[in-house]
């Protein structure tokens, strides 16, 4: 079910980016954002934004096939219980630092699905995941967004350091309530440049806002 959700999010994101002709797409939603960290995102909107601003070791392509993203190379042990993954070099966080195996280990420690899985650092760019039992679809778990070390402890969950195609550039509040969040495409040559999420207290307010 979780993998189907991730695949669904991919198609939603791809649909928005490929079909909206203007440079900015605005989406109205009810409720409040809580966190865009992959380890903490709960609501559908939070998970959608998390998917847009974070990359994983693998991803689903347009045809629904699992392909590499941050992963450069990987090996599976003969017994199917150890996965060794090497990430591409020179992959950067939004603040300019390089993504390393320390970030993979931190992410695995924070993601509930990795409970019981040992994650060992081989070198600066390589980790080994050791499973307690054989689990053939494990690579699909590695589509989860990678977070930088100490993200939960030191970063704003609504404006985190990220590594995806989009980055949160603005959070506008009305008192304690978030009213608007803006994501910007890091590829300045891209046709689709911004995503704007407007937050409303309830459905009635949302419908009224849509008419304005």
Q: What is the compact description of this entry?
A:
The chain has helices at 2-19, 44-53, 101-110, 138-141, 151-154, 203-211, and strands spanning 24-30, 58-60, 66-68, 71-76, 82-87, 118-123, 126-130, 166-174, 177-185, 194-200. By secondary structure, it is an alpha+beta fold.
Write structural notes for this entry.
The protein has a four-stranded mixed sheet with strand order 1-10-9-8. The termini are far apart. The protein has helices at residues 2-19, 44-53, 101-110, 138-141, 151-154, 203-211; strands at 24-30, 58-60, 66-68, 71-76, 82-87, 118-123, 126-130, 166-174, 177-185, 194-200. Helix 1 crosses helix 2 (44-53). A hairpin with a 5-residue loop joins strand 4 and strand 5 (82-87). By secondary structure, the chain is of the alpha+beta class. Keywords: Signal, Transport.
Q: If you average the pLDDT, what whole number results?
A: 89
The number of helices is 6
**What structural class do helix, strand and pairing data support?**
alpha+beta
Q: Tell me the distance between the termini.
A: 37 Å
Oligomer: single chain
What is the strand content?
A: 25-35%
Q: Write down the domain tally.
A: 2
Stated plainly, the CATH topology of the largest domain is called D-Maltodextrin-Binding Protein, domain 2
User: What is the second-level CATH architecture of the largest domain?
Assistant: 3-Layer(aba) Sandwich
> How many extended strands?
10
Give the fraction of residues assigned to helices: 25-40%
Which CATH first-tier class of the largest domain would you pick?
Alpha Beta
The largest sheet is: 4 strands, mixed
Spatial shape: elongated
The Rg value, from CA coordinates, equals 18 Å
Order of helices and strands: HEHEEEEHEEHHEEEH
Poorly predicted parts: 1-21
């Amino acid at each position: 079910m979780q993998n189907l959700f991730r695949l669904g999010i991919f198609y939603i994101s791809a649909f928005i980016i490929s079909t909206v002709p203007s440079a900015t797409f605005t989406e109205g939603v009810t409720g409040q954002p809580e966190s865009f960290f992959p380890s903490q995102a709960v609501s559908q909107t939070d998970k959608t934004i998390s998917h847009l601003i974070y990359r994983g070791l693998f991803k689903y392509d347009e045809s629904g096939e699992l392909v590499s993203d941050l992963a450069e190379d990987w090996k599976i042990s003969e017994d199917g219980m150890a996965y060794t993954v090497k990430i591409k070099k020179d992959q950067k966080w939004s603040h300019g630092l390089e993504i390393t195996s320390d970030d993979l280990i931190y992410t695995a420690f924070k993601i509930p699905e990795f409970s019981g899985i040992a994650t060992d650092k081989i070198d600066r760019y390589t980790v080994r995941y050791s499973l307690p039992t054989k689990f053939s679809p494990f690579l699909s778990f590695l589509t989860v967004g990678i977070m930088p070390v100490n993200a939960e402890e030191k970063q704003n969950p609504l404006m985190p350091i990220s590594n995806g195609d989009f980055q949160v550039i603005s959070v506008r509040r009305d008192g304690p309530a978030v009213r608007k969040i803006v994501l910007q495409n890091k590829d300045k040559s891209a046709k689709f440049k911004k995503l704007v999420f407007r937050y409303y207290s309830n459905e009635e307010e949302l419908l009224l806002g849509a008419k304005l």
